[in-house]
C-alpha cells in the first residue's frame, strides 16, 4: 500500500504543477486581452487567421478605375454584363410590381396586400405574364413586409388542386399548396427574414426572403362548376394587414422608378430593388462589384453622373448580356432524347443565367415537385414545329403519372401566347370533354392547323409553335425520369 500512496502523491504533485503553469498562462492572457481588443488581429505579427469577408465595402476605400480608357471601358462593360445577368429576373418581376402597385393608372392596379383575381381561364389575350396555363384560375398579389408581418388565411377546400405560389423579388419560389399544407388550409404569418416576434396562437410563420413578395395563386378549374368553386376559393383567401402596419404604397420606400427599356432604365430599377429588398446571403461580394456603374453607391443611381464613355461601356455590357440571355431561351432544360426538354425550374441557388432565362421565357415558374413540365419546339427528328407545312401526332402510350392532373398546351412561338382558334381549345388534358382513349389506354393527340377527321385535335397556327406538358402533383416516376414524353411525330405526306 505504501508505494501506491507514494505514487499517488507524486501524481498529485505533478497535476498541481501543471495546473499552476496553466493558471499563470491564463493570467498572462487576461492581461493581453485589452491590448488585443484595441488593435486589428490581422495586423499582429504571427497571426495567420484569414480575414472575414466584409458585409459592405464601407471603410475599404473607393473602387479603383483604370486610367487607361480601354481598360476602364472593358471593366465597366464586364460589370454591367454581370449586373444584367444577376438582376434581370428582379427587373421583370418589378415591371409587374410597378403596374399592380405603383401605377395608379394601370388597368390591374391594386396596391400592396390586395389580390387581383382572374375570374376566367387564360386565353390568347392573357397579358399578365407569358406562357400561362389554362388549367387554373389565377390570382395575383404583391405583399410588402417593410413595416411588419402580413397574415394569409387559406380556407379548407375540396378543389382538386390549389397553390399560393410565393416568389421573392428575384423569382425564387415556394408554395403554400395542397402538397405542402393539405386541403385543410391554415393561417400563416409572412414575416421578414430577421423577424423575431411571436405569432398569434394558431398561426404558422412563413419567413420571407425579401420584403416584397409576389403571390401567384392557382385554383383548379375546367368545367363551369369548377370555375364557380375556384371563384369561391379566391374570395375566401384573405390577406390581413395588422392594425398600424398600413399599406406599403405609403411605406416611405424611395420613389420607385417606372420601368424603362435599355441599360439606364434597367440599372435604375436594379438599384431600387437592391435598396428596398436586399439580396441573398452569400451575395455581398458580388453585389459590391456593381458600385462602379452607380449601383448601391452613396446616392441612388444617377445616370447623369456617368461620363459619355462610361455610359457607352455600360450600355454595351447590358446589350451583350440581354442578347446572350435571349439566345439561351432555346436551351432551357435537359434534353430527353425525344425532342422534349425537361425544365428544371424554380430552384436556382446562385445560377443567375438559368434564373434570368427562365423568367425571360415566362414568370411564375414553379418547382418541379409542384408542377413537372416539359417543353418542345421541335419534332422527334429535330425539325421545328410548324403548322403551315406539317401535321403531327403526339401518342401518349402512358399518360403522365400524376396525383392531380395533366395537360398538353400549345403556344404560338412568335408571341408565346395561347393560339386563338375556332374551338377555343388551347389544351388536351385528362379532363378534355370527349377525350378519345385507345383500348390499350393510350391517347393520340393530333396537332395541326386544319381540323382532322376524328381524333383528339389540338389546333395549331399556320406557323411555328411549341408545346408544353404540365403534370400537377407529379408522381415519383416523373420526377426520377422513369416517365418521359414521347416524340412528336410528323405525319407522312405533310399536309
- Major sheet strand order: 10-11-12-18-14-15
General form: globular
Give the helices and strands as they follow along the chain: HHEEEEEHEEEHEHHHEEHEEEEEEEHE
Which structural category fits the helices and strands? alpha+beta
Q: Looking at CATH, which topology of the domain at 332-490 would you report? A: Jelly Rolls
Instruction: Name the CATH superfamily assignment of the domain at 332-490.
Output: Domain of unknown function DUF1214, C-terminal domain
Helix count, per DSSP?
9
The main sheet comes to: 6 strands, antiparallel
Q: Rounded to an integer, what's the Rg over CA atoms?
A: 29 Å
- Kindly report the average pLDDT value: 87
Class of the domain at 332-490 in CATH? Mainly Beta
Strand proportion, as a percent range, falls in: 15-25%
Q: Residue ranges: pLDDT <50 for 5 or more in a row? A: 1-44, 245-252
In percent, how helical is the residue content? 25-40%
Please report the distance between the alpha carbons of the first and last residues: 109 Å
CATH architecture of the domain at 332-490: Sandwich
Total DSSP E strands: 19
Helix and strand arrangement:
Elements: H1 2-37, H2 69-102, E1 116-117, E2 136-144, E3 150-154, E4 162-168, E5 173-177, H3 178-181, E6 186-191, E7 203-207, E8 212-220, H4 224-236, E9 238-240, H5 262-277, H6 284-288, H7 308-327, E10 334-335, E11 341-342, H8 352-361, E12 371-376, E13 392-396, E14 402-412, E15 427-429, E16 443-448, E17 456-459, E18 465-474, H9 476-479, E19 489-490
Parallel strand pairs: 6-7, 16-17
Antiparallel strand pairs: 1-2, 2-8, 3-6, 3-9, 4-5, 4-8, 10-11, 11-12, 12-18, 13-16, 13-19, 14-15, 14-18
Helix pairs in contact: 2-5, 2-7, 2-8
Amino acid at each position: 500500500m505504501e508505494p501506491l500512496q507514494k505514487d499517488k502523491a507524486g501524481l498529485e504533485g505533478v497535476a498541481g504543477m501543471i495546473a499552476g503553469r496553466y493558471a499563470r498562462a491564463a493570467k498572462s492572457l487576461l492581461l493581453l486581452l485589452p491590448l488585443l481588443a484595441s488593435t486589428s488581429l490581422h495586423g499582429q505579427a504571427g497571426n495567420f487567421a484569414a480575414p472575414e469577408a466584409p458585409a459592405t465595402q464601407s471603410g475599404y476605400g473607393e473602387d479603383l478605375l483604370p486610367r487607361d480608357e480601354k481598360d476602364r471601358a472593358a471593366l465597366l462593360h464586364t460589370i454591367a454584363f454581370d449586373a444584367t445577368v444577376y438582376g434581370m429576373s428582379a427587373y421583370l418581376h418589378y415591371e409587374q410590381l410597378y403596374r399592380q402597385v405603383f401605377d395608379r393608372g394601370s388597368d390591374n392596379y391594386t396596391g400592396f396586400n390586395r389580390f387581383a383575381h382572374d375570374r376566367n381561364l387564360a386565353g390568347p389575350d392573357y397579358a399578365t405574364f407569358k406562357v400561362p396555363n389554362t388549367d387554373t384560375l389565377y390570382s395575383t398579389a404583391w405583399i410588402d413586409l417593410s413595416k411588419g408581418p402580413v397574415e394569409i388565411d387559406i380556407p379548407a377546400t375540396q378543389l382538386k388542386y390549389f397553390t399560393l405560389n410565393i416568389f421573392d423579388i428575384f423569382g425564387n419560389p415556394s408554395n403554400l399548396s395542397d402538397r405542402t399544407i393539405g386541403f385543410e388550409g391554415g393561417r400563416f404569418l409572412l414575416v421578414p427574414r430577421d423577424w423575431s416576434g411571436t405569432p398569434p396562437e394558431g398561426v404558422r410563420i412563413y419567413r420571407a426572403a425579401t420584403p416584397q413578395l409576389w403571390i401567384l395563386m392557382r385554383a383548379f378549374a375546367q368545367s363551369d362548376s369548377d370555375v364557380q368553386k375556384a371563384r369561391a376559393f379566391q374570395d375566401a383567401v384573405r390577406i390581413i394587414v395588422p392594425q398600424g402596419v398600413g399599406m406599403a404604397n405609403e411605406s416611405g420606400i424611395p420613389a420607385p422608378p417606372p420601368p424603362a427599356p435599355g441599360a439606364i432604365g434597367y440599372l435604375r430599377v436594379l438599384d431600387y430593388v437592391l435598396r428596398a429588398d436586399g439580396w441573398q446571403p452569400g451575395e455581398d461580394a458580388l453585389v459590391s462589384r456593381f458600385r462602379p456603374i452607380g449601383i448601391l453607391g452613396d446616392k441612388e443611381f444617377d445616370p447623369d453622373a456617368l461620363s459619355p464613355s462610361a455610359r457607352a461601356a455600360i450600355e454595351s455590357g447590358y446589350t451583350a448580356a440581354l442578347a446572350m440571355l435571349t439566345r439561351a431561351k432555346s436551351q432551357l432544360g435537359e434534353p430527353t432524347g425525344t425532342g422534349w426538354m425537361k425544365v428544371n425550374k424554380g430552384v436556382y441557388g446562385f445560377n443567375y443565367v438559368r434564373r434570368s432565362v427562365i423568367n425571360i421565357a415566362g414568370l411564375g415558374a414553379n418547382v418541379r415537385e409542384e408542377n413537372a413540365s416539359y417543353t418542345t419546339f421541335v419534332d422527334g427528328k429535330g425539325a421545328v414545329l410548324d403548322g403551315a407545312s406539317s401535321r403531327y401526332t403526339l401518342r401518349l402510350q402512358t399518360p403522365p403519372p400524376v396525383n392531380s392532373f395533366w395537360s398538353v398546351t400549345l403556344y404560338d412561338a412568335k408571341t408565346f401566347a395561347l393560339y386563338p382558334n375556332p374551338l377555343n381549345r388551347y389544351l388536351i388534358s385528362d379532363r378534355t370533354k370527349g377525350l378519345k382513349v385507345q383500348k390499350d389506354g393510350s391517347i393520340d393527340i393530333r396537332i395541326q392547323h386544319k381540323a382532322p377527321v376524328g381524333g383528339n385535335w389540338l389546333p395549331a397556327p399556320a406557323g411555328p409553335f411549341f408545346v408544353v406538358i404540365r403534370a400537377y402533383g407529379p408522381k415519383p416516376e416523373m420526377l426520377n425520369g422513369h416517365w418521359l414524353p414521347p416524340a412528336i411525330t410528323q405525319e407522312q405526306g405533310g399536309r
